[in-house]
Structure formats: C-alpha cells, structure tokens
C-alpha cells in the first residue's frame, strides 16, 4: 500500500521524534521527542476505512498525554525527591510502552488499527520509551522493575489464551515480549538491542502476512489457509518463530537472554519468563496448527498469491535462519 504525501510527512516527523528522544542530551529534549512522536502518530491512526480508528486514536492520545504529564510532574520532584522522581518517570515510560501493569490501553488500541499501523505501534513506537527506560534502569534498582517484568510476563501469557482476534493476540504477545526486553535491559544494552531487533523483524513479518491475507480473526486464517501451501508454511514458521520455539530464529535472542540471566543468578525471574513462554506458545500453536492442518475441499486459484509469491522464500529463510547460523550471535556477544 502506497503512502500519500501527508502520510509520508507524518511518518517522517514520527521517525524524527523517535531519533530526537534517543539522541537527546537532556530529559527535556527527550520529552519533546516523545510529544512529536505522539502528535505524528495520531494522523496515521485515523482511517476512513476503519470505523474504530477514531476511538483508537482518542484512547492512544489520552493515554500518551497522561504519560507525558507524569513525566513533567516527575521533573518537579528531581531536586527534592530524587527516588520519587525516578519512580514516576519509570512508571510513565512503562505506560507509554504498553508494559504491565499499565497495559490496559494497549489491546483495545491495537484492535482498532489496521495492520500497517499495528506494525508501527508494536515496533517504532516502543523504541523511544525503551531507550529512555534503559537510562533509568542503570540508576539504583527500583522495586517497580521486577514487578513490571513479572506482571508483563503473566499478563501477556494468560491474557492471550482466550483471544480469537489476531490483533489482540499480537498485543498480548507484545506485552509478554516486553518482559523479556526489560530483563535484557537489566543485563546489558547489547542484549536488549539484539532482542528488540529480532522481535521487530519477526512481528513485522507476521503482521505483513496477516495483512496480505486480510485476516483479523482466527477463522479468517482458516478460510485463507486453503489457498496455498506456501501461506500455510509461512504462517506456521512465523508464529512459532515469534513464540521462540527452537530451532526457529525467534529462539536465538531468548537463548541469549536465558544464558545471561543464569549467569547473573536471576533464577526466579527466569522461571516465570520460561513458564509464560510456554503459555504463549500454546495460543501460537492454536493458530499455526489449524492454519497448517485444516484445508478446504475446494481448490482456489488466486493471481494475488502468484504475483507476490516472491516474498515466500525470503520470509521462510528469515524464520529458519536460526537453524543455519545460531553460533554467529554467540560470537558477537
């Protein structure tokens, strides 16, 4: 889908706001970048083809405005109450990134978006809050961080079990991955950058796959899975890769985090993360196995699939890359 001139302008300012936040030398500049990012994303959400876009845009604006006001309020406590200021700032960043226990807005906003906007919300919109959060977490430890990691892991795992809408499933999956990313931030900056890069690529490939099938519900995948065996394999491998099932590519960053958490003796947090990963694999498998095994007796031919079949080998190679070179990333670290 080609972007209009106005959409390209807002996407450019959105990227500029993200770059300003992560490269600023002061918290005021980071706040300005977050506001520019917010005001640029609101027009991108609005769509005439989606009746829920206005509701999603209003919810997103109110939540992000609340997070920005908490950041401004935390700045007033910097001189006298430094610990309270850091606590409020961390809570505001968790709210902006959609991590538990401030996750309540994330699934409902995701449900009202189209797949291209879902990709932006799951990937680009998390860069600035997570980068700023990595600066805060290097200060003295706060009790809110372990609580946020454990809560995000449990909420993301349990919340997606009974969901049948694909965008809500990816929303709870993103909340669960936030727990892994915050754990990676506690370890080192390199670990969370590697994990976030893999998460962005895999989740983007799945959103592109669902957008290509025009699927928003599990039943839509069942109706479309009979079109092509290539589509079945893509759905199967991409979902299991996002779940971190070995030996798919998504297991590589989790493998690195598991090893680092063992070496730093974070056994309780690691146990909760692994238990939540098993629950997330359950609802990934529920989608993947039905899309892979159930077929329609009617044979359907689609020119659209033939025209875009060149994407298949690249997406399959990326999701199977963990089979080929897992030791490459061990050498990097």
Distance between the terminal alpha carbons, to the nearest Å? 38 Å
Question: Per DSSP, what share of the residues sits in E-state strands of 2 or more residues?
Answer: under 5%
**Shape field:** globular
Number of strands: 0
Q: Helical content, roughly?
A: over 70%
The biggest beta sheet is recorded as:
none
Rg (C-alpha, Å): 20 Å
Could you state the order of secondary-structure elements as H and E? HHHHHHHHHHHHHHHHHH
How many domains, in number, for the residues? 1
Poorly predicted segments: 296-309
Average of pLDDT: 83
GO cellular component, one term: mitochondrial inner membrane
Keywords: Electron transport, Membrane, Mitochondrion, Mitochondrion inner membrane, NAD, Respiratory chain, Translocase, Transmembrane, Transmembrane helix, Transport, Ubiquinone
Protein name: NADH-ubiquinone oxidoreductase chain 2
Organism: Penaeus chinensis (Fleshy prawn)
Give a brief outline of the structure.
With 333 residues, the protein is mostly helical. It has helices at residues 5-23, 27-45, 53-76, 82-97, 106-111, 115-122, 124-137, 144-159, 166-187, 189-213, 218-224, 229-243, 251-263, 267-293, 303-307, 311-319, 321-324, 327-332.
List the helices and strands and how they pair.
Elements: H1 5-23, H2 27-45, H3 53-76, H4 82-97, H5 106-111, H6 115-122, H7 124-137, H8 144-159, H9 166-187, H10 189-213, H11 218-224, H12 229-243, H13 251-263, H14 267-293, H15 303-307, H16 311-319, H17 321-324, H18 327-332
Helix pairs in contact: 1-2, 1-7, 2-3, 2-7, 3-4, 4-7, 6-10, 7-9, 8-9, 8-14, 9-10, 9-13, 9-14, 10-12, 10-13, 12-14, 12-16
């Amino acid at each position: 889908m080609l972007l209009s001139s106005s959409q390209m302008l807002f996407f450019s300012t959105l990227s500029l706001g993200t770059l300003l936040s992560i490269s600023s030398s002061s918290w005021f500049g980071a706040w300005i970048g977050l506001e520019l990012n917010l005001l640029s994303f609101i027009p991108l959400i609005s769509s005439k083809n989606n009746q829920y876009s206005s509701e999603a845009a209003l919810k997103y604006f109110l939540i992000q405005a609340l997070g920005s006001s908490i950041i401004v309020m935390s700045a007033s406590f910097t001189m006298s109450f430094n610990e309270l200021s850091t606590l409020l700032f961390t809570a505001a960043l968790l709210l902006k990134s959609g991590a538990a226990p401030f996750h309540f807005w994330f699934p409902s906003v995701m449900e009202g978006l189209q797949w291209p906007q879902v990709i932006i919300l799951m990937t680009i919109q998390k860069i600035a809050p997570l980068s700023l959060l990595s600066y805060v977490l290097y200060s003295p430890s706060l009790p809110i961080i372990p609580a946020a990691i454990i809560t995000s892991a449990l909420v993301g795992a349990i919340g997606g079990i009974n969901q049948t809408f694909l965008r809500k499933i990816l929303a709870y999956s993103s909340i669960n991955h936030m727990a892994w990313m915050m754990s990676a931030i506690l370890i080192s900056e390199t670990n969370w950058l590697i994990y976030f890069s893999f998460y962005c690529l895999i989740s983007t490939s799945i959103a592109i796959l669902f957008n290509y099938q025009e699927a928003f519900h599990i039943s839509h995948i069942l109706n479309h899975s009979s079109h092509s065996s290539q589509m079945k394999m893509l759905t199967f491998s991409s979902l299991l890769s996002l779940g971190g099932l070995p030996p798919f590519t998504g297991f590589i960053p989790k493998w690195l985090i598991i090893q680092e958490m063992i070496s730093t003796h974070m056994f309780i947090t690691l146990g909760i993360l692994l238990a939540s990963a098993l629950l997330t694999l359950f609802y990934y498998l529920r989608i993947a196995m039905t899309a892979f095994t159930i077929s329609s007796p009617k044979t359907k031919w689609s020119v659209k699939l033939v025209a875009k079949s060149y994407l298949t080998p690249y997406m399959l190679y990326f999701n199977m890359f963990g089979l080929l070179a897992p030791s490459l990333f061990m050498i990097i670290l």
